[in-house]
């Protein structure tokens, strides 16, 4: 029986180039896809591939680029002290900055889930990312100024310090050379001769500026003693315009108010007094015998000017703190996105099983967030290896060598001393340090896509 006998139409012959042959193709032809990729490929070739290849080539030539030196630039690079300083600082950056920023981002992300004004909090924390690194460096250069009147960091520290231990009333005051005053071990002064009840003593000091004198300061007067007390006067032994007699109270000389005076016997303070507006004081309630009069060091303590943030010791931690301020918002946003993707059923099940909030966070939240935390950490590590602008702007020229990093050293060698060969070798070395982290990141992304 044939198809004609049954009335069933015969099947059409398959086309030789149809799907059945395995040669069919869906989508545009390859040349069209290549055409659309061409601009991106040209961009990568001009701005990525060519600079890398040229840097490798240039690193094999001398500073002027006229003589082939082979690997001499790499040998010089690893025999320079500046390179090892920069490498040491990069190791400190890698060990500290990515971990600190990731932890800060995790804390901020968890906080945003527990506060009512989460959106405003995210905006405030993320806002530094909208500022250029150059501007951020300028901001923190001002924050770290040594003068408390200009630097915010030292202004806060000195405010707390002055609350706990106030500055002395006259930090620059001191006796004249040859005066009957001896300096004590703690920085104060004492009379060389002892005093007894009924005595009147004079204590001349110099080195006091008009700015240190209170507004109610009066002219110094001669002390008048009474039975059972030691009286005295502390004054500025300096006559403006010249003249006057040393260690004698002249008519134009002023007293030193608000100074603490102590009477000491057998190493114990038995009486204290504070000078008045005219510099006079009276130590009362004294028994018979001799006493040593002392001006304690608290009268002359220098004002605390805070920490030397931009000094050789603290310059690298100070810049890392600025880096934390800039990048904490970036870490917070990524980690917050990962937190929102965690199934709430897993967290509720852990709480139902009796887990505390800390146990739920440590045993459930953090393990589920580990892929996001790793992405943030590795990304920050890549950026830390290339850190340049914050170090360049914040570190003063006097301590830039102490804060040096590889990217800054590459720039200084290439454009400071104009040694393009050694600078290119440093660039290649920096690339070799960055590539493993990039490969790790790309492989991780591919595994997650599978």
Automatic annotation (TrEMBL):
It comes from Streptomonospora alba. InterPro entries: MetI-like, MetI-like_sf, UgpAE/MalFG_permease. The chain crosses the membrane at residues 31-53, 91-111, 123-144, 322-343, 364-385, 421-440. Belongs to the binding-protein-dependent transport system permease family. GO terms for biological process: transmembrane transport. It is found in: Cell membrane. PANTHER family: BLL4140 PROTEIN, DIACETYLCHITOBIOSE UPTAKE SYSTEM PERMEASE PROTEIN DASB. This is ABC transporter permease. Keywords: Cell membrane, Membrane, Transmembrane, Transmembrane helix, Transport. It comes from the Bacteria. Residues 1-23 are annotated as: Disordered.
């Amino acid at each position: 029986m044939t198809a004609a006998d049954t009335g069933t139409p015969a099947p059409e012959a398959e086309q030789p180039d149809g799907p059945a042959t395995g040669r069919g193709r869906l989508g545009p032809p390859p040349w069209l896809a290549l055409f659309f990729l061409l601009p991106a490929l040209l961009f990568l070739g001009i701005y990525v591939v060519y600079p890398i290849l040229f840097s490798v080539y240039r690193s094999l030539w001398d500073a002027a680029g006229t003589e082939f030196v082979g690997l001499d630039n790499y040998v010089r690079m690893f025999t320079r002290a500046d390179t090892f300083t920069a490498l040491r600082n990069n190791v400190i950056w890698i060990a500290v900055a990515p971990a600190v920023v990731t932890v800060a981002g995790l804390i901020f992300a968890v906080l945003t889930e527990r506060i009512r004004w989460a959106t405003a909090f995210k905006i405030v924390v993320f806002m530094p990312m909208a500022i250029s690194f150059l501007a951020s460096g300028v901001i923190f250069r001002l924050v770290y100024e040594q003068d408390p009147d200009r630097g915010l960091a030292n202004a806060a520290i000195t405010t707390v310090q002055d609350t706990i231990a106030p500055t002395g009333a006259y930090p620059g005051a001191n006796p004249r050379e040859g005066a009957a005053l001896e300096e004590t071990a703690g920085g104060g002064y004492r009379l060389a001769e002892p005093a007894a009840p009924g005595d009147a003593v004079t204590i001349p000091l110099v080195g006091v500026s008009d700015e240190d004198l209170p507004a109610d300061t009066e002219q110094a007067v001669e002390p008048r003693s009474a039975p059972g007390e030691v009286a005295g006067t502390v004054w500025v032994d300096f006559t403006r315009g010249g003249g006057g007699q040393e260690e004698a109270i002249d008519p134009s000389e002023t007293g030193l108010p608000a100074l603490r005076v102590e009477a000491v016997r057998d190493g114990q303070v038995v009486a204290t007094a504070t000078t008045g507006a005219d510099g006079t004081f009276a130590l009362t309630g004294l028994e018979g015998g001799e006493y040593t009069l002392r001006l304690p060091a608290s009268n002359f303590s220098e004002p605390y000017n805070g920490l030397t943030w931009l000094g050789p010791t603290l310059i690298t931690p100070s810049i890392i703190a600025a880096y934390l301020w800039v990048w904490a918002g970036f870490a917070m946003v990524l980690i917050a996105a990962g937190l929102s993707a965690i199934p709430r059923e897993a967290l509720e099940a852990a709480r139902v099983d009796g887990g505390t909030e800390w146990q739920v966070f440590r045993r459930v939240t953090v393990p589920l967030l580990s892929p996001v935390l790793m992405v943030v950490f590795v990304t920050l590590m890549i950026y830390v290896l290339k850190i340049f602008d914050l170090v360049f702007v914040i570190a003063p020229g006097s301590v830039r060598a102490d804060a040096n990093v590889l990217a800054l050293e590459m720039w200084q060698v290439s454009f400071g001393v104009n040694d393009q060969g050694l600078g290119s070798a440093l660039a290649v070395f920096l690339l070799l340090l960055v590539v493993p982290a990039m490969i790790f990141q790309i492989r991780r992304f591919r595994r997650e896509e599978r």
